[in-house]
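Lab meeting notes turned into a lecture example. A postdoc, R.K., suggested we walk through two folding results consecutively so the class can see how the record format repeats. The first protein's sequence and structure tokens come next.
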Amino acid sequence: MIITIEVALSKGTLIFCDDDNIRDIAGLRGTYKIIDKTDIALDIIGQFLENAKAKEVIIYLDSPVSNSGKLKSKIMNHAKKWNLNIHVELVNNADIILEKSDRVVSSDSVIIDKCISYFNLNKSIINQYIKSAELIDLSET
């Protein structure tokens, strides 16, 4: 989710898909780099979660991905400002955990097809906070 919000803020290309999800085409595979939009993305995510009256959020980050430890620290620093309970866990493979969970936030089609339930937060956040996002509509409307 963080990467998609960063892409939206950076005016990168996002795709609005048939399943009502917004996905980025950043093409990241096993790497992550904190960028100039990361802090803004985290502020927006935190504001959205507070406005949605979320009480507790668990964020899973893949530990094999580069800079996941730095991102965890950054999230925890931002979370000090948020009025909710945040847990950030570095795990070997977040997909395995998410596929078996409910109330998942993801736009990964494999995860949302397998998980018990999910929230489409990317779409809600982009529609509410990043109206200038570059969206290519590939949905069948």
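The second example is placed directly after the first for contrast:
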Amino acid sequence: MVDEPHAVVFSTHITSDLERIADYVSVLDSGRLVAHTTRDELLEGFRSVRGASGTLDAPTRSLVRGLREHAHGWDGLMATEDTVGLSAGVVVEAPSLEDVVVSYAQREPSHV
């Protein structure tokens, strides 16, 4: 791994391993490549979002990947650029690699 012209392919469902050692991440969903980029670009491209039920309007709903609604509100993943202008009641945080990989392959927002 020190020798730049060489690569190691590491296939796993254990995302904590990837977070520690991967330079590039490829995400497969049902055999289809849905993402391939550097680990850092993948993490910077998304934000974990959550809010109370009243903060989930139709435009926001259409942008959330892996939307989960529950008794206390909702949560999911959004493209970083889509989080600008969210209502004040929505919490926006950096996601873990597991958050991104699990949500990325789920239902894509309608604008994609």
